[in-house]
Amino acid sequence: MHAIVMRIWLILSHKSFLWILLFVNILGTVYGYDWYKWQLIITEPKFWLFVPDSPTASLFFCLAIIGWLIGKNFKLMEVLALITLVKYGLWAVVMNLLTLMETGSIGFVGWMLIVSHFAMALQAVLYIPFYKFTFGHIVIASIWTLHNDVIDYVFGQMPIYGDLMKYMSEIGYFTFWLSIACIALAYFVWKKRSPVSA
Q: What residues have CB less than 8 Å from 83, skipping those under 6 apart?
């Protein structure tokens, strides 16, 4: 088992694989921003930064990968990527499964969103050994993440899921605790690597 894990890690950490991963994430990021284009059209400009949650998460990861490729750690990007990729990756999986339960069908696009967003969360976890962020970076990323929840569920800028909009209070509550769980994950990663301080 250890040999298998080491082989997988050698693949994941190889520069050629990182370049492929960067390319895939750039494509996903561009597609994601295009996906939100219609919602941005009906959104006040002051909220634009906080509407396209998933593509912004993958953008953070793209910047983290670029850092690794040039031998640097963009620490704030790393912790933002970890927290937001896991958060919005799992969030989208849950929302699409809830839509399936509500309507009985989500079609090809819905299943594509489930697979792609689960992959977002998975890649963030797989690259935990690369992260070098400190507690201070976690604090900044936590403020960003919880502030985004306020913008979404207090100011009404959440992603629009037509059949689920009647459950926005419950979804907002779930999202808040998902944010807390993802922040706790980042804290656990930091604490495990540096028990005293970093």
A: 141, 142, 145, 179, 182, 183, 185, 186
